[in-house]
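Rotation project, supervised by the postdoc (A.L.). Task for the rotation student: set up a whole-complex structure prediction and record inputs and outputs verbatim in this book. Inputs entered:
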Amino acid sequence: MDHEDHADYASRLAQTRQRIADLGLDGLLIASQYNRRYLTGLTATDHDITESAGMALVTRGTFGLITSSFTLNGVEDEIKPSGAQPLLTDTDTGANVLARALSDEGGVRRLGFEKDWMSYATYARLRDALGEAVEFTPTDDIIELVRARKDPAELATIRRAADIANRAFAQLLQDIRIGMTEREIAALLERHMVALGADEPSFDTIVACGPGGAQPHWVPSDRAAQRGEPLLVDFGCRVDGYCSDLTRTVVIGEPDEKLREIYDVVRRAQDAGLAALAAGATRGREVDAAARQVIDEAGYGKEFMHSLGHGVGLAVHELPAVSRLRVSTPESEAELAKVEGIEPGVVVTNEPGIYITGWGGVRLEDMIYVGESGPEVLTDRNPQQIISIAG
Amino acid sequence: MDHEDHADYASRLAQTRQRIADLGLDGLLIASQYNRRYLTGLTATDHDITESAGMALVTRGTFGLITSSFTLNGVEDEIKPSGAQPLLTDTDTGANVLARALSDEGGVRRLGFEKDWMSYATYARLRDALGEAVEFTPTDDIIELVRARKDPAELATIRRAADIANRAFAQLLQDIRIGMTEREIAALLERHMVALGADEPSFDTIVACGPGGAQPHWVPSDRAAQRGEPLLVDFGCRVDGYCSDLTRTVVIGEPDEKLREIYDVVRRAQDAGLAALAAGATRGREVDAAARQVIDEAGYGKEFMHSLGHGVGLAVHELPAVSRLRVSTPESEAELAKVEGIEPGVVVTNEPGIYITGWGGVRLEDMIYVGESGPEVLTDRNPQQIISIAG
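Outputs recorded:
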């Protein structure tokens, strides 16, 4: 059964309308593909900002999806459960369709738009079409903050995505042999995930054998796996739109002292992050700081140059932020404070890492659901000692 | 050998600088991931507009890549052939790094930015950082029009991408059996392309057995292939960044009269498009019109609701446009005229289709290189009669 059958669209819409009203807006134009799907159920994806499958419109009186028959033809049923009304652009521009919907409704003076998800060109086109009557107002994170707290149906879907990734990785461990290339290992893992029921990888799988792992976003190459190197695999899959995101670091043969030590530091940092959540941390920075302290104290602070984690859901990276304050200004402080709330219902990653140029990287990433009674790790945990495979 | 070893970065930069000067600008800030790669060689990809790996900056005195060590670490060699200078954002915001680079250079008063590829949020942040001294000016298609004409190294890479797709499809035809699902067929084809040397599919493979084909952007489902239905496959792969994009429609068993007739109309429309190119068409709309006329005359005009084609290169969809003028206003006329130039060096798709709700679709898509001496079809051509497979 699809996630969409259970989705509580009415609650999502009501929460969105409440937040719109709280901000003194009369409506919101939704450009993010994730927010569009969250509210309307439309599963179409946008691969580039220049190729959007449509925008959603939420005002007091309207809940619409501005799109074309080209997009909706054959998938009309996707948006039925949400009640989104198609506002079709078949015979007019999206800008004119929007302007007409607002003028038909009347009373929409301040219309928000998602400033991070709308191109300047689209902004300018819509602003001109709306004219003086509408104050077209940049907003951020209105729906992202609703999405941060997962409902039971969403959590169930995320569990499936995590479970498939777990099982696919267990299969991969049986397959890996010395001499297989990073690309081959990545392709194999992606195939396992799809065979186990995933729709697709949730992002391009990262496999780094040795030195490549020093680059956190390494793209798999034709380098072959060798004995004794850190073998880092960052992967996940999408199930009914929802993502998993995991990282494991293993070794073929026996780890040397350095690898053993670095793995241990990262694993203890992960414990510290989890412990901070169990102790009731309410801000992402507290969780980040707890893990970072372990790495700092081990002398690898500079080699852990990214955030500890992030929310996961319809997007691989979403709210809440689990990161440090990089630049300490009142503005950046306020910005982080707005998006780092750890509340019951959030799903976050816990992914400390240590990266050493010329040697490679160790990153360990699990997914954690923060429930009313504390954190629950949704993935198999990375074990306390590095997994050694025969190869 | 990688494409990047042959790329004529100096010519790309010189052409870009010429176009910047022609527009009365002192420089251009490049947000598109495709333009960024084209100029600098950086292969990093941006999956969402909110997660950019960096921007390129071109002025009279500067050719820079504004990015972080997080992105560049380990892949510094990618940008060496282009000569792009890293402008690192490790200890400051991208906006401040940009402002400092401009102020160090001096004399940059009008700085263009790519309005279709920059979010409103980024625009506003940069505009504020640049202040009064710089007129931050929206532009479009400056580099896209340079990219439209492929150089020999690019053409060679596109040939490889087309060739791999051709061979993968030939393998797929041996594999397809009645009862295989759309998803299984898509996964198989993608695996063949990767096994033959592709980096990845260039977009999510479309496989539609029967009714789904009525939706041009159908997402493969668990529907099983049945005898006698149109089986539409739209696919391609990426090799060293460059894309192929093909569509084939085949049938398991014998086609009935309707399928035979519709296939014939679409195939003749494709011939007409190709003939228009051979006759020296200089505007995309002429090519579109030639193919569309065949479909109109057969009575299926309303069932061909998309453009005939598009350029292909680093992006699956790029310039030139091969489409009709949808709304006839002086503005839209001027807009189309700017981007539809058919010049020697362009690579375009030729992809007429007929889509019938409840029945399915027939689309035939080949890739065509327009050389000095006329068009050359880069893909295997879709045959004159529909391919019937045993299944």
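Student's summary: Chain B has a mean pLDDT of 95.
Supervisor addendum: The longest helix of chain B spans residues 152-175.
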